[in-house]
């Protein structure tokens, strides 16, 4: 059935379009009797206001676009909880798009959000530079944007991140301090800014303890569980001796851990494994995973708050917010002579 419009109500009541529209808007200049007639007719015919059209007339859609690289792991969902917690209380709708780790899909998502006339975007990138041109174009056209976790490396934009470099350095120091001297880094793709920062932390931790960095001990990988498995398989196939692993993400670390256990290697007795992300996955695997735990819910809340600030006042300068991340030491790096293993935070 065709939706009832203001024109339909005006025709039925023998009133002008503007009178019906003003009555529905509770205009005090419309007589009380006329207002009541219009409201009663709207109720009788099931009239529903077209909020999209109303918002566009006001120059707002009251919708926010959120573009995430993937939805397979809990990372994005934990950030989204924080985003929706803030935006939901302000009357905004959230439109979510997944780029599937593909910059071309990300480009289509950006164009779609522009077509939907969202009031702003919250984005975690699939590539640090690939879509710079379209991002600059959207920025020039007045689109407000906030980036989190995976950020553009050379654009002046508002960002919400953690200190990937410092926390990675500390995590590798933890592996070294626990007696590991042959530590492999499963590195994320070069086109991700935080992958480079975590690799830099790994390298500087080795240098600090005067451990030689070897090219064979850096395995460049993708981003999936299978990529982690393949990295571990490559290490064993090449017979590279190693007693520790620092992985770019929990996902990669779990892929490594699963494969090594299938090959009858004990964790952490034979190989200690640590990673970065802090998703819920780190606590539901065996053994539980030592990881840098990012405040994902807070990351979403802060990104949403910053975006609302920019929408309210587009003259606000761009800023970078660095959130605190915690090192969670769990069973994947703690030797089994201490059977009661608890999380420890530094």
From TrEMBL:
Domain HTH lacI-type: 4-58
InterPro entries (UniProt xref): HTH_LacI, Lambda_DNA-bd_dom_sf, Peripla_BP/Lac1_sug-bd_dom, Peripla_BP_I, RNA_pol_sigma_54
Keyword Transcription: yes
Pfam families reported for this sequence: LacI (PF00356), Peripla_BP_1 (PF00532)
Keyword field: DNA-binding, Transcription, Transcription regulation
KW NAD (keyword) present: no
GO molecular function: DNA-binding transcription activator activity; sigma factor activity; transcription cis-regulatory region binding
Record-given protein name: LacI family transcriptional regulator
Source species of the chain: Flavobacterium hercynium
